[in-house]
Design a protein that fits this description.
By secondary structure, this protein is mostly helical. Helices cover about 55% and strands about 0% of the residues.
Length: about 475
């Protein structure tokens, strides 16, 4: 007699495999998708007479997702024909695993399959990156297409400081936080009510033309929302879904009930005060901003190391990525900078380090920067900064509207004196070296200001003895 205990264990699947995102939709050849959508939506329209708006909206979204997955199943083929052939051979050998020779053959084929799959994935990533770099000059859409996972919150702390990593507990902590956030002083949840002074006339119903216009004006290639429905899917299924969406919108207006997905939002908390992408600090504002720009640039570079450090990627593609993704990160908001020589050297050192890393060169190799820059041919960060600053200044001063940027630039204190000793560098000191003390007047003349641009970019100072001006340089 044998006594035993049976225990069932739940096999935990990888979250990466559970992400059921909507596949990529091709704009052309969608007759099968249109027919399926038309039949299912018409059948469900008859069934959901007594359903709520939330249920109708969820049915509509789920129908779109399921029908797209049925039609577009193999739109992202990763494995090559050689790999599929090896998989078929191994499948035939697995039918007879008793023989030792066949087991050896299975082991050898499995090794070949692993190596071939790695090559296929690498080849697919490289070809996808090259395609998007040539098309748009950026890599955002390429990484979005190659990404196969969802981002999850790893853990969260509650009021007592207890850290939780389970999904249910995290949702409860977030729910309690927002309940406390929107509570009034009396301890009751605040409810939004319609203002009595608002116009009491009923809203006109939504027309089919308005729904079509809203769908047509959406741009392609954009990230979908929480419902994972892309603009491509809305456009190709527009003849079928426009009447259904119009009826749904009118019912929402009539009942004043909206789906829960429309009320979702995301909040982001930061440790430092950053306004419009620039660090706001009462002390050493410029120094901290330059260090932050350099740090963000290196982060961006290492996030693109798959492209920039790839020996198989041509230099022309790397140059495109640098000029369109890395250089704007380093020169963001450079129009408002007043750089010292030390800060300018920091920015130049950052670019030189990036170019050495692209070529796989180190400082101890003692290769001159001139040779390195001849190979890379990247845009010079110092020239880009000065060119952007010069052009933005001329545009700002020629603007007829009263704006704070021009008011602050033309403003002087009443005493009009500076303290003794060496002064900190001002934003306008660079302009005075090239355009002279009357640079504000020169900037209002577009032709004169444009003629001085090359001299400013190349840092050619004005000779005070000869006193050249913009008129003599034209």
């Amino acid at each position: 007699m044998i006594r035993a205990t049976l225990r069932g264990t739940h096999v935990k699947k990888n979250r990466r495999l559970q992400a059921k995102s909507v596949p990529y939709v091709n704009i052309e050849n969608n007759a099968e998708l249109m027919n399926n959508l038309k039949e299912i939506l018409e059948r469900k329209e008859e069934e959901k007479c007594n359903k709520s708006i939330q249920e109708k909206y969820c049915d509509f979204v789920n129908t779109l997702k399921t029908e797209v997955r049925k039609v577009y199943t193999n739109n992202k083929v990763i494995l090559s024909t050689k790999t599929t052939q090896l998989l078929k051979e191994r499948k035939l050998l697995l039918q007879d695993t008793k023989n030792k020779e066949t087991r050896k053959e299975i082991a050898e084929i499995s090794k070949k399959i692993k190596e071939q799959i790695r090559k296929d994935r690498k080849q697919r990533r490289t070809s996808t990156l090259q395609y998007h770099i040539k098309k748009t000059g950026g890599i955002k859409k390429a990484f979005k297409e190659l990404e196969l996972k969802k981002h999850w919150i790893l853990n969260m702390e509650d009021k007592q400081g207890k850290c939780s990593s389970k999904r249910v507990e995290i949702l409860n902590i977030a729910t309690e936080y927002y309940k406390d956030l929107y509570k009034s002083k009396n301890g009751k949840l605040t409810k939004t009510t319609m203002d009595d002074t608002q116009d009491s006339e009923p809203l006109p119903p939504v027309l089919k033309e308005e729904t079509e216009r809203a769908i047509i004006t959406q741009k392609l290639g954009k990230a979908p929302g929480p419902d994972q429905i892309t603009n491509e899917l809305l456009k190709i299924s527009m003849p079928v879904i426009v009447p259904k969406l119009t009826n749904l919108f009118n019912e929402i207006i009539k009942t004043e009930n909206i789906p829960e997905d429309w009320t979702k939002s995301q909040l982001e908390y930061v440790n430092e005060y950053i306004y419009l992408g620039q660090l706001i600090s009462p002390t050493e504002n410029m120094q901290k901003e330059i260090e932050r720009r350099i740090a963000n640039t290196w982060k961006k570079f290492w996030s693109l190391s798959e492209i920039m450090n790839n020996k198989e990627m041509p230099m022309s593609e790397k140059r495109k990525v640098f000029n369109s993704c890395i250089l704007p990160c380093l020169t963001y908001a450079c129009q408002t900078w007043a750089l010292t020589e030390q800060q300018q050297n920091k920015i130049n050192i950052c670019q030189n380090g990036i170019e050495r890393s692209v070529l796989g060169v180190r400082r101890k190799d003692k290769i001159k920067l001139k040779r390195i820059k001849e190979k890379t041919k990247f845009g010079k960060v110092q020239s880009v900064c000065r060119k952007l600053k010069w052009r933005w200044t001329g545009h700002m001063l020629r603007e007829k509207k009263e704006k704070w940027t021009r008011i602050i630039t033309e403003w002087y204190p009443r005493e009009n004196r500076r303290s003794r000793g060496r002064q900190p560098k001002r934003w306008e000191d660079d302009f005075k070296k090239v355009a002279g003390p009357e640079w504000l007047r020169t900037a209002r003349d577009r032709n004169k200001w444009k003629a001085l641009e090359e001299a400013f970019v190349e840092r050619q100072a004005v000779n005070r003895g000869d006193q050249p001006n913009a008129e003599n340089m034209i």
